[in-house]
Amino acid sequence: MGNPNLSRLYETHSLTQDQILEYLKCADPVDGPTYFIRKYIKIVHVDRGLVPFDLWDFQEEIINTVNNNRFVICKMARQSGKSTTLLSYLLWYILFNENVSVAILANKGATSRELLGRLQLAYEWIPKWLQQGIGIWNKGYVELANGSKILAESTSAASVRGRTFNIVMLDEFAFVQNNLAVEFFQSTFPTISSGQSTKVLIVSTPKGMNLFYKMWTDAIEKRNDYIPIDVDWRKVPGRDEAWREMMIRNTSPEQFDQEFECNFLGSSHTLISGAKLKQLVWMNAFAIEDKDEFGQLDIYEPPVKGRTYVIVCDVSRGQGLDYQAFSVIDVSSIPYMQVAKYRNNRLSPMTYPNLIERTGRKYNDAFVLVEINDIGQQVVDILHYDLSYDNLLKLSMKGKQGQNISGGYKKQIQFGVRTTTPVKRIGCSNLKSLIENDKLIIKDFDTISELTTFVSVKESFAAEEGCNDDLAMSLVLFGWLVNQRVFKETVGTDIRTSLEREQYEAMEADYLPPPMINTGLEIPGMVDDEGDIWNAVDDIKNRYPYDDPNKGWGRL
Fold first, then answer.
1. 140 and 237 share a domain?
2. Are residues 205 and 318 in the same domain?
3. 424: Cα separation from own chain's centroid
């Protein structure tokens, strides 16, 4: 292509004795990467143009960690040289190893090609006697004379399917759509991990509580094999408190907290408060069932004889977009507990009822509530007529007034619930109270992740763009369900009464002691010798139960 900085495919070089010794130093598998990068790699500095890459201490630590470990995950601040550091290592790797393949994957194809362009620029400024001849050289692919290759593509399930790679680098992985990130690992990670020396390098600035957040947390708590590297703004030379104040002044505290402090923040304006979302803790599934036939049912608590369960189901068309999703919730006592969860965007609506029925019977013939806005009516019909599932929750229709859970036979009866505006409004309000008051315990990561992106949209709540809310909506329907009279009678718990009681007790604890009043009059039964005007209230409390709102102290 007429580029004088590159060696041709069959070009030869005569090396001096010093060059041979230098080549051996660079090719050393232990100290070679850092030596080669410091001496021969050049990068474009934003102020000074093309300059030698003088590694900072934390960048050298990253190079050594990557060189000595197979799985590395880096949580790094913006503009800390995270991508440049890993690209420099990849350039060393393909130069001094024969017949190896490397993939650079980013959230967008243009971003990955830009990263490969930076590697190509560094390659051009390496002395020709260190270079390999060029076989293929374009914006998305490079092949060298030693048989080594490097590919740049976007992160997706099909990006590296069917290919073999020695190293896969995932750049800005937190910014990949969560469903694509999950599909990528499901389809390609078994191939990558099958080798003995293959590597996966993940690097990103945090963005919410997604798969990157889960993998990072699992690495910190040693639930996976990734080596975590944490780099915030303080480790970058030249950044001090004055720089921090300037950045916050020109951006926002929230943006600085996420992009430079590297804290995992959920979306703004979420249904559940950000402070509460940070406190939610997921657990690994106790068991995984039906993985081959239906996808994956994650079980966090096995069924217990005598306990009562509810399955709340969200239905999609099973075409790879929205998910078939349900949560199994133990409602025997407060706090309610999520004990199992299912989510799959490939399962047919015709097969979905079989999994619901099987799971329902496993969990003591659980009560089942199905959302029927779209294809859900077919799911309900199969459950009722074909599978003869008895514990489907019925609704009585009341025209414009809405729909209520039915406890008996009425003229207008339907199985399942239609998610109308009133249903969603009540469900969102109750769900917020349940979770923020620790009356509903969520154990599943995917559910928590959806709640972090379940945000205010106009006058309602929905998933923000590029995210899903199928599990979140199953909980919204559960929030609506707990407000229904027949649910309270069947389960024997009333979450609203419990919350009201706690709020009353907290409010009563905040009151100042009643004043001492002496009017000179004595009213029998109202004021005792000490003038305690609350005696009358205490008397009513003893006579009437709190649960009757029309009498006694409940009404007072």
1. yes
2. no
3. 23
Are residues 473 and 413 part of one domain?
Answer: yes
**What is the residue type of 515?**
P
Q: What is the maximal distance between C-alpha atoms in the chain?
A: 117
List phi, psi (to 5°) of 343. Answer: -155, 125
Average pLDDT over every residue of 317-329: 78
pLDDT range class, residue 191, cuts 50, 70, 90: low
In single-letter form, the type of residue at position 337 comes to M
Bond into 515 cis (ω within 30): no
**Contact, 174 vs 212, CB < 8 A?**
yes
Kindly state whether residues 159 and 289 are assigned to the same domain. Answer: no
Domain that holds residue 140: 17-259
- CATH code at position 281: 3.30.420.240
- Please check whether residues 346 and 406 belong to one and the same domain: yes
Distance CA 423, CA 327 (A): 18
Q: Give the model's confidence band at 542: pLDDT under 50 very low, under 70 low, under 90 confident, else very high.
A: low
Residues designated as active site: 172
| 377 pLDDT tier (thresholds 50, 70, 90) | confident
**Domain co-membership, 87 together with 186:** yes
Q: How far apart are CA 7 and CA 124, in angstroms?
A: 9
Asked whether the beta carbons of 199 and 226 are under 8 A apart, the reply is: no
Residue 178 carries which side chain, given as an amino acid letter?
N
5 within domain boundaries: no
Residues 6+ apart with CB under 8 A from 174: 204, 205, 206, 207, 208, 210, 212, 213
What does the DSSP 8-state code read for residue 225? S
The pLDDT tens digits for 463-489 are 877 788 899 999 999 999 988 876 776
Per-residue b/e over 74-96, b at no fewer than 16 CB within 10 Å? bbbbeebbbbbbbbbbbbbbbbb
In a domain, 3, yes or no: no
Model confidence band, residue 412 (pLDDT cutoffs 50, 70, 90): low
145 in helix, strand or coil? coil
pTM for this prediction: 0.67
Higher pLDDT, 553 or 148: 148
pLDDT in tens, 275-297: 788 788 888 877 676 655 666 78
Mean pLDDT of 364-380: 88
Q: Does 26 reside within a domain? A: yes
Residues 396 and 479 in one domain: yes
CA 517-521-527 angle, to 5 degrees, is 60
pLDDT tens digits, 98-144 = 999 999 988 888 889 999 999 999 999 999 999 999 999 999 999 99
State the total domains in the chain.
Answer: 3
Three-state SS string across 319-372, please?
A: CCCCCEEEEEEECCCCCEEEEEEEEECCCCCCCHHHHHHHHHHHCCCCEEEEEC
Mean pLDDT of the chain: 81
Q: Provide the β-strand partners of residue 405.
A: 395
Regarding whether 301 and 249 lie in a shared domain, the answer is no
Element (H, E) at 179: helix 178-193
